[in-house]
Write a structure and sequence with these properties.
The protein has 2 helices and 3 strands. It is α/β, with parallel strands linked by helices. It has a 3-stranded parallel β-sheet. It is flat, with a radius of gyration of 13 Å.
Length: 73
Amino acid sequence: MGKVVILEGPDGGGKSTLAKKLVSDYGFQYKHEGPPPEGDLVAYYKESLYLAVCDYKNTVFDRHYLGETIYGP
């Protein structure tokens, strides 16, 4: 089972810098997803996270689109 790290925070807070460090120093896979297709958002993200965990590789998500809603207008 892979470890999953989701980095959330405001723009310019160092999320991408930390994600790149996890990739280069510890071999994490990097994921940055844009807006999902229309449909059930919860099911989409559940699937995304489930696949990352079952991949047996450590994965870092540089922001998960669902979390971006708190930074919107």
